[in-house]
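Open question from group meeting: does this chain pack into something compact, or does most of it stay loose? Before anyone orders reagents, we agreed to write out a predicted structure and look at it together. Recording both the input and the output here so the notebook holds the full record.
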Amino acid sequence: MSANRAVYPITTMSRLLGVSASGFYASTKRPPSRRCQADAVLTAKICAAHAGSQGTYGVPRIHAELAEQGIRVGRKRVARLMRAAALAGISRRRFVTTTVKGGGRQAPDLVDRNFTAERPNVLWVADITYCPTWSGFLYLAVVLDAFSRRIVGWSMAASLHAKIVLDALDMALWRRRPIDVIHHSDQGSQYTSLAFGKRCRQAGVRPSMGSVGDAYDNAMAESFFATLECELLDRRRFKTHAEARIAIFEFIEGFYNPRRRHSSLGYLSPATFETRALDPGAHQPAIVLASVKDGLEMSSQAAPSACRPSPAFARASS
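Structure tokens returned:
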């Protein structure tokens, strides 16, 4: 009635709607109810959480974010307020790979699509994708820890060559100092190269490879690339490689590793999941505690260590 009072008389609208005109005028003078006031405060917190996720979080992750802040609220209420505020998460599209089989020696498949690990530095998955820019493709190679989905190594280059995967592996080795870790990838020519095989033998890394052209054989790496595409690459256009490098660096090290919540990790970020795995007795909100993997045990020797940047890290980020 308030929205149409300039077009139709209040008495006419009251008669058609079956309400009294005096009741309408009285409602305009009453202050907002406590429920409306609480909704306004909660909407502001939801908007802040949505903005903090770079506009990517939907209802489940916003609900987890509020629970982390100690705000107890139903998921349906969060969904209602997000609809009213025109807020929505980013939906993921299917990611298409373009792996080219190399002519080098292929490693056996030590994973067999079982991307689970009881502690960090047991299983790493790796792959390469590209970021389109006005200056041509910028290629990104990553190494991801299957335990926490944390990106432990990455490298970017303007062309595809074995050095890009070597730099990503070197960063992961400097950061984590693994012992007998499995490195799983596809059969791309970069991973079947002699240089990569030699580096794996020197570092005590066990290479593993899935089949060609089957995304399920490297599903965890493909899942990260789908997230990267959905939450960053599809939403921005880059003029130069330098601009794309900065954006990808900020996404991985500033958002994905320390802050982005994963449903498979009980809506914890990779960094938080690893930290709490080291201390199972740490306080966790009920919404998160119910979804976190049971029986997490990890020795202090297997904990990720903060290492100084390697030369590969410097080359990758330059």
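Observations to bring back to the group:
The CA atoms of residues 10 and 201 lie 83 Å apart.
Confidence is low (pLDDT under 50) at residues 94-102, 285-318.
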